[in-house]
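Data availability (excerpt). All sequences and predicted token strings are deposited with the supplementary files. A representative entry, Alternative oxidase, is shown inline so that the format can be inspected without opening the archive.
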Amino acid sequence: MRYVGTVSTLSYLPRRIGFMPAGRRTLLTSSDKETLNSSAVEKHAAERRNIASTSPAKETSELTKQSAATTIPTMVRGDWVLFHPVYNKDEVKAVKVLHRKRLNFSDSVAYGLVKLARVLFDKISGYKHMKTPPDPNMSLYELRKAGYLLDDKGWLSRILFLESIAGVPGMVAATLRHLTSLRLMRRDGGWIHTCLEEAENERMHLMTFMSLRKPSIFFRALVLGAQGVFYNLFFLSYLVSPRICHRFVGYLEEEAVYTYTHCIADLEAGRIPEWSDMPAPQIAIDYWRLPKNAKLLDVIYAVRSDESTHRFVNHSFANLDQRSDVNPFALREPDMHVKGSRVEFKRQESEEYAKVSHEMMEEHLESAKKTNGGL
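Structure token line:
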């Protein structure tokens, strides 16, 4: 797996640790610094004069134009994101629909809340999932009208609503852990950045599908209300039991993997003809480093892989003590052949994984010292 961020390869560890670039640093004299500062000031002044002379006085600049899904102008593109994975074709096909069995009462509570949310959302959207329709001769139009299949707009509404909610738990967890770290004046054990990466990853899913459709005012109001209720409920719940909250998110991500797997099956079977040959949005090509000729199907495969990562990580987190254990995935994560085919690491597996990661980090530190002449 190629990664921009959390990664299972050894080559990533130096970047996470924050090594200096290879080569010795050169000390500058005070006169050198004055010369550099003077040159920088003159260059900056020249650039300001050039901008003032060439920019129209009252016209809207291309740098301020916005699209429906972003405040970033269309002519400015960049990767303003945290670390995130980039998959190959074998990895996205390794994801399986899995379910973790409930082992105790708290697991049942978390799973029950997820199933309740799923049933309510299906009722509101009028969706009925059946593996075999009542009449095999029903046309695509008839299946959609009866609620057994979703059209492209139905899938988008479902995905946009899901992703607008799915981006909440990671941010809540990161916020509370950040405040706890400040309040107790101690390190966090690597939990904060993993939670932030999850929250941003879900947000990028939303931004990707937002580029396909501009939601109505009613839909935005629905998301606003649901997000406000869910954020506060999850915030209060995380104060009481982080473990149950991570288990809840793990079960929620199971549903997300199931949803995207179903969407992929419908798309590949030709049951969503509107998306059959649709090119991937540019934001998705930039984010997942997809080829220029990538299709929307490739994007959905990548999104499903992300969701399987969140499923695996949150179920594994729920097996740990969030107040004292180190985050086993702070330095690296297993590849998709593990995260896609397993639902969790047990506590002992997480401890062993963290130990191996630490040993790998020490080896890289020693190697970097030798490469840089002992610095």
